[in-house]
Amino acid sequence: MASTTWSPTTAVTEAPLAPHERIRNAADISVIVIYFVVVMAVGLWAMFSTNRGTVGGFFLAGRSMVWWPIGASLFASNIGSGHFVGLAGTGAAAGIATGGFEWNALIFVVVLGWIFVPIYIKAGVVTMPEYLRKRFGGKRIQIYLSVLSLLLYIFTKISADIFSGAIFINLALGLDLYLAIFLLLAITGIYTITGGLAAVIYTDTLQTAIMLVGSFILTGFAFNEVGGYGAFMEKYMNAIPTKVSDGNITINKECYTPRNDSFHIFRDPLKGDLPWPGLIFGLSILALWYWCTDQVIVQRCLSAKNMSHVKAGCVMCGYLKLLPMFLMVMPGMISRILYTDKIACALPSECEKYCGTKVGCTNIAYPTMVVELMPNGLRGLMLSVMLASLMSSLTSIFNSASTLFTMDIYTKIRKTATEKELMLAGRVFILVLIGISIAWVPIVQSAQSGQLFDYIQSITSYLGPPIAAVFLLAVFCKRVNEHGAFWGLIIGFLIGLSRMIAEFAYGTGSCMEPSNCPTIICGVHYLYFAIILFAISIIIILVVSLCTKPIPDVHLYRLCWSLRNSKEERIDLDATEEDVNEAPEETFEIVLFPNTEVAEEKKGCCRRAYDMFCGLDQQKGPKMTKEEEAAMKLKLTDTSEKPLWRTVVNINGIILLAVAVFCHAFFA
């Protein structure tokens, strides 16, 4: 019996979206307007109820956050619109294996909360490059990592989120692409620039709730439409487009037929699109970089009021990361079932007709289902979900990027910068980042080769492993020194960059038109490449470190795992450097204990309004004494926990790891 493609109506699968199907009715528009009003209200509340007038307040939310906003913000920062578009698109194309990327995080949020964050807190740092400077000394690693992190934000996170958000908005609203992007970035930038990390975390919490509610509703509609889970598995394997040839063009069957291993996470190590060794080991390296060393993620944990809240927030994020498989990957697969000819198009001419690109239309799987399947009102809710994911991810990146720039780059340019100058520099940099982001959109559009999520992960595989290697050895191997770390980063970066440039130059190709990139360069799967690059970086770091002078323990107290509980006074390597000696106050004092005794000056109405809006009028109160500063510093670097809550979070951490193992085994 010949396989058939199931779809609710012929018109849905073959006709392009009609204007009346777009979100232009009172119910949908009302929901979207209400969403924006509520988000701005929460942002304004956070702005005026938290301390944004200091670097510690703006960048670390005053280190006063409790566990549930941290967990929600970790999740929202990670789940951008790129996930809705990318995970659903890759799911539509290749099945559930891409969900393994999400479940791997269950393990590494535990590693983050239990191993890395305690070290960062004891070190008393605000940024990850700052930790490396304390650990190794010197400026070059700190500046290099800051610049590389900012580039990675633009190449992967910002560009991918904007691109995927633009796909959805263009499909649903028919708005001009750049107008929609400009409006979104403007709103996003306003409450990031004015509100600081507290506003970002509180709005992230709201966005997470909106994302989950909307995604659950859409998933329910999708499974109901397809006839339940059993029917979903059967119909996906038969979701084959009707047009597979055109004149002299006949598409290879492998290019449009669902994979035999579509419902397995672990796939063939040689022929699989996501080979299981790469998924276990290669992905773990990328997860180590992202979850344990990335500024966006770690900054949320550093804002917690104590270690128990850090761990609880990480556990909450871990449980939330179970959901994308069911709320994004599987709905993307259902979209292929419902709209087979559009989502699974094989002929370049057909794909171009449906989505404007010849290499495939899986990226529109999720947006198409929202526009086609959801009723009025709920369609507006789902657009709000996409806006929520886009804006929450971007606000997190903007705040963290401004932290990196201000604390690691600007302070090197302006060594005597005042507290207010640092605050303004961070906010201006967000505006610069927004401009660069808009300029990058056409580059992402042209570089996109059909599956957005693969683009994100491959770029990460080429640039992330050396950073992961340096942080891992910095924490666990005290013999590693600055020379080893620096050359490991540089050589690893050059190797990864050569692969990335070659792939961009030759193109990643597609099933119909394979890339001409030499096999020796591009023939290795990007997850395998990550393993190789990580191993090379580790070897270089260790060899160079062993051939050069070690760092004395007096400089490493509470900076690496073996010395984490040391009570002895640490002499920071960066404390002896010239720029610190020239500074008017200690770095730590500038960051967390600004001199708040400022002479009152007469200000005009406009100046007072500006200061209030940006939180620069909040620096009031007496200057701390040396004893008070020491006590506050001790409190902020304290990682002790109450025994009861330590036991509770530890048990939950173990349960989360068990859940991770079960999920991988069940869908193996």
Automatic annotation (TrEMBL):
It catalyses: D-glucose(out) + 2 Na(+)(out) = D-glucose(in) + 2 Na(+)(in); D-galactose(out) + 2 Na(+)(out) = D-galactose(in) + 2 Na(+)(in). It is a multi-pass membrane protein. It is found in: Apical cell membrane. It comes from the Eukaryota. It holds the Pfam family SSF. InterPro entries: Na/Glc_symporter_sf, Na/solute_symporter, Na/solute_symporter_CS. GO terms for molecular function: alpha-glucoside transmembrane transporter activity; D-glucose:sodium symporter activity; galactose:sodium symporter activity; water transmembrane transporter activity. The keyword Nucleotide-binding does not apply. GO terms for biological process: D-glucose import across plasma membrane; sodium ion import across plasma membrane; transepithelial water transport; transport across blood-brain barrier. The keyword Cell membrane applies. GO terms for cellular component: apical plasma membrane; early endosome; Golgi apparatus; nuclear membrane; perinuclear region of cytoplasm. The chain crosses the membrane at residues 29-48, 103-123, 143-171, 177-202, 209-232, 274-292, 313-334, 381-401, 422-443, 455-477, 484-506, 526-548, 644-667. Keywords: Cell membrane, Disulfide bond, Glycoprotein, Ion transport, Membrane, Sodium, Sodium transport, Sugar transport, Symport, Transmembrane, Transmembrane helix, Transport. Belongs to the sodium:solute symporter (SSF) (TC 2.A.21) family. PANTHER family: SODIUM_GLUCOSE COTRANSPORTER 1 (PTHR11819:SF151), SOLUTE CARRIER FAMILY 5 (PTHR11819). This is Sodium/glucose cotransporter 1. It comes from Myotis lucifugus.
